[in-house]
Amino acid sequence: MTNPEVAVSMNANKVIAFLQKSPDTFTKADIIRFIKENGIKMVDFMYPAGDGRIKTLNFVINDEHYLETILTYGERVDGSSLFPFIEAGRSDLYVVPRFRTAFVDPFAEIPTLTMLCAYFDRDGKRLESSPDFTLHKACKALHDEFGVDFQAMGELEYYVISDEDAAFPAENQHGYHESDPFAKFNSFRTECMQLIAQTGGRIKYGHSEVGNFTLGGRNYEQNEIEFLPVPAEDAADQLTLAKWIIRTLAWKRGLDVTFAPKITVGKAGSGMHVHMRLMKDGRSVTVENGALSELAQRAIAGLMLLAPSITAFGNTAPVSYFRLVPHQEAPTNVCWGYSNRSALVRVPLGWTSRTDMCAVANPQEDEVAADGSFKQTFEMRSPDGSANAYLLLAALCVGCRLGLEMENGLDEAARTFVDVDIHKQENAGRLAQLDSLPDSCVASADCLERQRAFYEAMGVFDRRAIDGTIAKLRSYNDRTLRRDIEGNPNKVADLVRTYFHCG
Asked: What is the SS3 assignment for 391?
């Protein structure tokens, strides 16, 4: 787990830096003191809605009594306008700020303190169907049953789009880790990273990605920002705020960005891969004796079982399924493997060799017994930017818990393991043995309908939320869409425009 002292030291979040406290210890008095001593004039509440985007409510600080009132009681909102499954007749909800999420809005001209909120119903109970509480319940169920904590980190891929710049053109589809001047938006990305850090986001790194092309007088450059492993609830907050930061800064810079999973045929799509690790008593239990632990293998087995329905939360737009095709570094089949980008779940390099590579690269350094096993994760590669981060991480947590519950978990892990590129012709036999992911929103909804009991177990996913997800996916009526328009660039372009700003 993150050391609170490390979290405070050199932290870019102005609230953390001022209070010199770990954010999970922030009190109402702390928030009021920060506001009074830092010239804050307004307070914003933000909260994730059913469409995965964050919504905003603005408050002017009239006086200290009013400030304490809104911090204590929150405010009413119209739930039927935020969630499609909430009826207008009983639509009132409360939103109450979560103090640990406080940050100074980096875009506001008037000094503004912003906090993410939790939803409550008319009885003062957490809204069972809200995305943030669903994730909370999923994490609690895993901890209560197995004493295991679920941590996650997201990889946020997106395209930056601008008028064509002919100087120093990058090679088509070879933009991976490109530097200036061949990559045009490295400075935009680093500014985004700094602003995300100011909101509390714990970033691992950023870089340009493979996708890089020119079309119709416009430059399309793919970038990626990757986060550090944190408790899953924090990970969802960070991903949601990061999207807001990137979009807002692009708008202010006269740029356009999209997290859409596919923006044109034949070019790299954008995913939102999720790395996971399992923690117990503050230590990673993902590795045991220098290898992937049996606990982690069982968790992966659960992900394999639920993989078809996880797409209902991770791939929520028709264009999602134009990305999940062979030979695009995107998964199409239910399998896992080590360092294998053709697999649905990849176990990346995990610093398990115990070699002090720093001392090898820097002979002036004294060699130490290095153990980087805490860095080991396993990565779900199917999700994309259309996902609601809270519901997606909740589904992945349910999958991990299911794997730990399965009596044959290790057998299932062995059955779905691959150590080859399954899309090569010589491995066609192995490919034929593997289940396929759904190829449309409708097919994904069908999978969720069949597997919904796993999500509803232990009260994690509310029945209404599952019903709403299924109904939404089926409303696209896209069962044969990929096959119908794949060879028609004009219709594909129309589809891309429709879902350009999904998620």
From this structure: helix
Rounded to whole angstroms, the Cα distance separating 277 from 287 reads 9
Which domains are assigned to the chain? Answer: 4-127 (3.10.20.70), 135-498 (3.30.590.10)
Q: Are strands 291-292 and 54-60 parallel, antiparallel or unpaired?
A: unpaired
The kind and range of the H/E element at 121 are none
User: What's the pLDDT tens digit per position in 14-72?
Assistant: 999 999 999 999 999 999 999 999 999 999 999 999 888 899 999 999 999 999 999 99
Q: What does the pLDDT look like over 155-210, one tens digit per residue? A: 999 999 999 888 888 788 788 888 889 888 999 999 999 999 999 999 999 999 99
Structure tokens at 84: 């499609």
**Full-model pTM:** 0.95
In the predicted structure, residue 304 carries a pLDDT above the cut 80? yes
Collapsing DSSP to helix, strand or coil, 159 comes out as strand
The candidate with the shortest Cα–Cα distance to 299, out of 331, 259, 248, 345, is 345
DSSP classification of residue 438 = P
Strand partners, 205: 226
Q: In this structure, what are the phi and psi dihedrals at residue 222, rounded to the nearest 5 degrees?
A: -90, 135
DSSP letters for 311-327: HHHH--STTHHHHSSTT
SS3 of residue 393 by DSSP: helix
- Tell me phi and psi for residue 469, to 5 degrees: -65, -45
Give the SS3 label for residue 59: strand
Q: How many C-beta atoms surround the C-beta of residue 287 within 10 A?
A: 23
Q: Which H or E run includes 337?
A: strand 336-338
Q: How far is Cα 150 from Cα 234, in angstroms, rounded to an integer?
A: 11
CA–CA dist 418, 434 (Å, integer): 10
Q: How many beta carbons lie within 10 A of that of residue 484, not counting itself?
A: 11
Whose CA is closest to 276, among 302, 296, 260, 293?
A: 296
Contact 313, 387 (CB under 8 A): yes
As given in the structure block, the two tokens for residue 115 are: 């906090």
CB-based burial of residue 449 (10 Å sphere; 0-12 exposed, 13-18 middle, 19+ buried)?
Answer: middle
d(CA 397, CA 374): 19
Give CA–CA dist 457/132, Å, rounded.
17
Give the per-residue pLDDT at 353: 76
Asked if residues 227 and 470 have their Cβ atoms less than 8 Å apart, the reply is no
The C-alpha atoms of residue 152 and residue 226 are separated, in whole angstroms, by 11
Cα 227 from Cα 196, distance rounded (Å): 10
DSSP string, 279-311: EETTEE-SEETTEE-HHHHHHHHHHHHHHHHHH
**443 phi, psi to nearest 5 deg:** -65, -35
Secondary structure of 76-94 in HEC code, one letter for each residue = EEEHHHCCCCCCHHHCEEE
Which of 118, 142, 143, 116 is CA-nearest to residue 128?
A: 118
Contact of 311 with 382, CB cutoff 8 Å: yes
